[in-house]
Amino acid sequence: DTEVTQTPKHLVMGMTNKKSLKCEQHMGHRAMYWYKQKAKKPPELMFVYSYEKLSINESVPSRFSPECPNSSLLNLHLHALQPEDSALYLCASSQVEQGKGYTFGSGTRLTVV
Amino acid sequence: GEDVEQSLFLSVREGDSSVINCTYTDSSSTYLYWYKQEPGAGLQLLTYIFSNMDMKQDQRLTVLLNKKDKHLSLRIADTQTGDSAIYFCAAGKSTFGDGTTLTVKP
User: Fold this and answer.
1) CA angle A105, A106, A112 (to 5 degrees)
2) What is the pLDDT of residues B14-45, one digit of tens each?
3) Using the beta-carbon criterion (under 8 Å), do B30 and A98 form an inter-chain contact?
4) Contacts of B49 in chain A (CB under 8 A)
């Protein structure tokens, strides 16, 4: 298995909702990442988990809460989002944090209404 | 901090070679990467180069790294319509260029 699987593919949520994005990989990678990508822009790093521990939090607002339950799973819990948070959320993984390359999932297209 | 710059657009004819250029400011990244993103999809890692290498070839792809000028390029030989996409240059895990939109005309 050489894939990163993200669910759901699309999500529409209201500003008072709580939802979660899920990411899974079975490549034995020990680093996992969340990125946010706005249309026609490059991805922006949000969080890095290395060996299931939060390694980097790029000053992301607390309405985004990451969780790494085990080495294969990464969640992003969403609460009280704003319309400007609408974007493509990408998960990625790599063998280790300074690895030779990153495998990206196909993303969750999030719309906040 | 690190900055990566790319030209925004490139248009070529099918069968020609495409060259996408990138410049970066910080030499501390161990690896430099090229990604491809098709509409509605995630990023696909095309290739990477270790920072102490000058060149890497992988089938139709050739990466050239000029460390002195901090310049990275991606050459795609025999470009096909399926190569039309946005190509991102990246240094490490967090520094991406703005992407080059490659359009391949039949």
Assistant:
1) 110
2) 999 999 999 998 778 889 999 999 998 999 99
3) yes
4) none
